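Known limitations

Structure tokens in this collection are predictions and should be treated as such. Users comparing against experimental data should check residue numbering before alignment. To illustrate the layout, the record for Flavohemoprotein is reproduced below. The input appears on top and the generated tokens appear beneath it.
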Amino acid sequence: MLSKKNREVIRSTVPVLETHGEAITTQFYQKLFASNPQLLNVFNTVNQTQGRQQTALANAVYAAAVHIDNLEEILPAVSKIAHKHRALGVLPEHYPIVGENLLAAMKEVLGDAATDEVLEAWGEAYGVIADAFIGVEHQMYQEASSQSGGWTGFREFVVDQKIVESDVITSFYLKPADNGALADFQPGQYVTVKVSAPGQTNTQLRHYSLSDVPNGSYYRISVKREAGREDQPSGIVSTSLHDHLSVGDTLLLSAPAGDFVFDCETSGPVVFLSGGVGMTPLVSMLKTALEKQPKRDVTYIHAAINGSVHAMKDDFNQLADTHDQLKYYIVYERPSEEDRKRAHFSKEGFIDLSWLKSVADKDSTFYFCGPQPFMKAIYQGLKEWGVSADQIRYEFFGPQGSLE
Ligand code: FAD
Ligand code: HEM
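Generated tokens:
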């Protein structure tokens, strides 16, 4: 428990953190990697280039300062981050290293404002926050290893099948190399892959949602090739998996993680909205809803640029043909001539609120995932419609961002 005096000091630094939070976390990462270059094997350096990780960490530190009197208010956020930490292999011994570099960065950025009193208060606060993370993560490590077929760290899997799903998305069917049991997971969860990509000095870790239902035999991930552009290098891991991972090859995976999961306890209608490769966690949820809750009304809306990048078309059509409770809509931003000939889409352009209102029920639980602009549009549409926060669930395919 933080002392009263230090709580007051932390509260007084809230406005400073609001202004300088990102400068502090940017400085923090520079210091961390300079003194601990081995951590470059754990962090996604591309997220650093884009500043998304610095923002996510600054927001977390700021939220901790704002809620310093009531840290349990940030427990849901702690749990989400802890899932990622557990999947990446963050351990208790890493916390003092991060704490030391965070305080050093504060001192450097805040200058005279970082008095001994402020640094002492933040040192104590960091300890309390770190203990909360370490406790939650300890429990997650225990759950991952005690589950039948579970494990901690990275386990070797063999690619059993590699299936091209669209011009940009390919699925990999993965079986444990040790032929041992395979842990179940909750639909919506992801695994983390550890890859030594060609031309990279450090190993790369990336998360991929499990795109099929738990089946005791294999995990399936479906990966979009991030091709890059003239002004932007192509994605390191996705292109490496597409180009260099073949049937019979092995891949290292950590055990399933994540709190964006399908809630089988809720009844009432459910709406899934996916944009592009954001379909992966939702496919698993959709199949689960149809199997486990056959009386539940399900609406699935998938948005893609056009039919050539629309993955798993046949699987979805088959699900729609064989389940009366499923209403399935396809939205193409720019349908091709071929798409027009086949006329297999429901709407052209983007999903907007008036159209959403015409196909979905306001009382539904809404699950969505896709590119950030897609997610913002859906989130803001649902808010404008008056859908309450507890009916809205979503996942970012990157560090947690803002949808406001
Ligand atoms: P990176 O090398 O990490 O690059 C990321 C992007 O930045 C690329 O588009 C690249 O072109 C661009 N870029 C690279 N360098 C720069 C630069 N200097 N300036 C500007 N732009 C740059 N992805 C899937 O395909 N399927 C999934 O099911 C899936 N599930 C996910 C689940 C979760 C919970 C999360 C967090 C992410 C998920 N992702 C999924 C995303 C995935 O983890 C990777 O982020 C994605 O594959 C890109 O990784 P990469 O190594 O190919 O690209
Ligand atoms: C990710 C906070 C300690 C390693 C994150 C994220 C936040 C965060 C907010 C972004 C989660 C997201 O994707 O949305 C914190 C806080 C910490 C802490 C508040 C201390 C109390 C640590 C430690 C390590 C670590 C000790 C180990 C070295 C990572 C890594 C990521 C991450 C590797 C993923 C970043 C990426 O590759 O994109 N953390 N963290 N964190 N954290 Fe921590």
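For this record: Residues 72 and 78 are 9 Å apart (CA to CA). The chain has 13 helices and twelve strands. Please report discrepancies through the issue tracker.
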